[in-house]
Amino acid sequence: MVRFLSLVAAAVALPTLACAFVPGINNELNKAGAVKPIATAPFVKSDGASSTERSAMLTQTELPEKLYFKKEKEVPKVLGGIQIGLRKLVVVTGASSGLGLACAETLAKTGNYFVVMACRDTDKAKKVAEERGFPKGSYVPMKLELGSLQSVRDFVANLKAFKSARPLTHLICNAAVYKPTDPEPAWTDDGFEMSMGVNHLGHFLLVNLLLDDMKKAKGARVCIVGSITGNTNTVGGGLVYPQADLGNLKGLESGMQKPISMADGKPFFGAKAYKDSKVCNMMTVSELHRRYHQTTGIVFSSMYPGCIAETALFREKRTWFRKLFPLFMKYVTGGYVGEAEAGERLAQVIDDPQCSKSGVYWSWNGGAKTVGRWAEDGKPRGAGGSGGEIFENEQSDAVRDLPTAKKVWEYSAKAVGLDPKEMCKDIDPLSLD
After folding, report:
1. What CA–CA distance (Å, rounded) separates 243 from 250?
2. Integer Cα distance of 218 and 169 in angstroms
3. Which tens digits make up the pLDDT trace of 327-352?
4. Catalytic residues
5. Among 290, 324, 296, which residue's Cα sits nearest to residue 310?
6. pLDDT tens, residue by residue, 188-230
7. In whole angstroms, how far apart are CA 175 and each of 184, 195, 223?
8. What is the pTM of this model?
């Protein structure tokens, strides 16, 4: 009877806790949370402001109208090959906080990786790396604003200048924004709704611009962080309103340019925009695998790290919520995982030999397809939370919809202005059927 009441309580709470199933979001672009916009005058003259100053302003205001300024373009770092040495080279987006930082720290401290911390605030990245005790000479922060396609291109150029002839071994696409309570959409520099622009389109361009380089590396891997919220065959994706649904892709087909804010062309809905972007992330992994794995040898995968209930995502919530929410996820839903463990999980997908299979959606401890079942230690198990072994999870039918995935790829390439000459030419002929 106790177990039944617990399940009922969880079911009742889920609709109001949709954000509970967001996987380790890096909130560098979501500093404002649900705060309403204030006067935008401070940003009119921000062209000369440093990235650190602008980030400080963003902790209390909405995003500025422009995210990436020409004056912020980094001078390319050089002679990186000497620093990298014999270690594997890995890029982690959103590496200055949250899941990305925990993953970068895990990889750097193995001694086997040189980590490029790709993030919007390089000063912050350097500071937190020092505070967390990253080994000296194991990392370098590099400017990447995923809300600007120009910044993505500048990052790729700077990365290539830094590493010289050394190919990139691994790419982890982790950074994301989540704006479920915003009544109106925010926009990237290129006129895309922020969630789709940063989470999907920015990463889509980044991966495609790096494939030709990565195919030269031995054992190369690309991991794009997924989410149960994009999988309708899970508790977080199937029971928590709204469900992800790309519809007929009318919005994406039309270019996703302002005022179009949703992939299905319908009115803006912040929580759904995030979920739709995650579906696109996972479809991108499937298409990368289908098009390029056999011909390049690159391993493409996605993963869900569990619910990081103590992430900075919830810093705007009341004190009672921040205290009780982790307990709810630990002892009722069973989906809780600490930030450090989540980072280890993401690092495992890149490092572990058993994760060398391409086209897989990795999960742990039941994959969050059910509310946790009580174990002998009095804690629920099987809901994707702490503990358990890694396994190949099953994606929803919607995510595995091949015709839709092909269209997402085609429309995304057009939206970001990806020239066919920039795309990897080693496409599997069988994928063209």
Report:
1. 18
2. 7
3. 555 555 666 688 999 999 999 999 99
4. 274
5. 324
6. 999 999 999 999 999 999 999 999 999 999 999 999 998 765 4
7. 22, 11, 12
8. 0.80
